[in-house]
Specification:
This protein has about 290 residues and is α/β, with parallel strands linked by helices. It is built from 15 helices and 10 strands. It has an 8-stranded parallel β-sheet. Helix 2 (about 10-20) runs antiparallel to helix 15 (about 280-290) and helix 14 (about 250-260) runs parallel beside helix 15 (about 280-290). The radius of gyration is 18 Å and the shape is globular.
């Protein structure tokens, strides 16, 4: 089935309809002893192989990009135990990596999760500073078991906006000296092409599909600018906010993303599993079908 056939027929609706199990019901229904996890298409971030779908963590920490009320609801609901269940469910669906900042709560959670043989094995650290503490945060990420590191978009944009490419070089070089894959993120569509032009030695880019940090604009025009950026980049790109922070239906957001990224690229998508943990399986199914198309 071609990608457009999948998205325009009942197949997409069937996938969406399957995303109705609550976290509690899924935990009861899914036995701990399972057959092997599903397998998703993979990409390479430097030397690190990851699934083409990466789990985002914004909902864990209450970053809804919608309202303060929803932020607070997300923070209250995501206990460590629920986050661990979501990580396991993602792994069962073929997702191999999660992105999270290396804050203290996450570092403790990840240590406990890995000590208890959690199923998801790869953590990509999103180092978010502040700028004068970035090098220490990189070092903490390495010590806490990150498999790759990238610099958060807001911190990259601060340096680019100030014309301080030297400081950005220092951060990137620090990760590289640790022997780890290194990336940079951005919301602004002009940043990654400029870093590529300047010869920054990065292994991957995280590109926001909307310039939300600068304009709070989730318009189609902003997305077109991001899509044009992605096509210019030679290193792997991880597209994020492909669902416009919940403003697009998954079928539409995934189709738009996969129509504009290359086979070397992937997507990072978080979920709010309070009402439907099977959103993870839905997203994984879209990635499988759209990769074949």
């Amino acid at each position: 089935m071609k990608r457009r056939e999948f998205l325009k027929t009942g197949a997409a609706a069937a996938v969406a309809g399957a995303a109705g199990a609550t976290l509690a019901n899924r935990a009861q229904a899914r036995p701990t002893a399972q057959a092997g996890p599903d397998v998703l298409p993979s990409i390479k971030l430097g030397t690190l192989e990851v699934s083409r779908l990466i789990l985002g963590s914004n909902p864990f920490w209450g970053y809804s990009h919608k309202s303060a009320q929803l932020d607070a609801e997300m923070r209250a609901w995501h206990t460590d135990e629920k986050i661990a269940q979501i990580l396991d469910e993602a792994a069962a669906c073929g997702v191999t990596a999660v992105v999270s900042p290396p804050d203290e709560r996450w570092r403790k959670l990840w240590a406990k999760y890995t000590d208890q043989n959690g199923k998801l094995k790869i953590w990509i650290s999103q180092c978010h500073g502040p700028a004068d503490k970035m090098l220490a945060e990189i070092d903490r990420s390495v010590g806490a078991g990150a498999a790759a590191i990238f610099i958060q978009g807001a911190r990259v944009e601060e340096q680019v906006g100030a014309g301080d490419y030297d400081r950005l070089h220092i951060w990137v070089d620090q990760v590289r000296r640790k022997g780890m894959p290194v990336g940079v993120a951005a919301h602004w569509p002009e940043i990654h092409p400029e870093l590529q032009r300047r010869g920054f030695q990065v292994d991957f880019y995280f590109q926001c599909m909307y310039n939300a940090s600068k304009t709070s604009d989730y318009s189609a025009a902003e997305r077109k600018l991001a899509e044009a950026t992605v096509t210019q980049l030679k290193k792997p790109v991880i597209a994020y906010k492909i669902l416009a922070a919940g403003r697009l239906q998954p079928s539409e957001g995934f189709e738009q993303a996969f129509n504009n990224i290359q086979r070397k690229d992937g997507v990072c998508v978080g979920i709010y599993a309070r009402n439907a943990i099977d959103q993870i399986r839905q997203n994984a199914t879209y990635v499988k079908m759209l990769t074949r198309g």
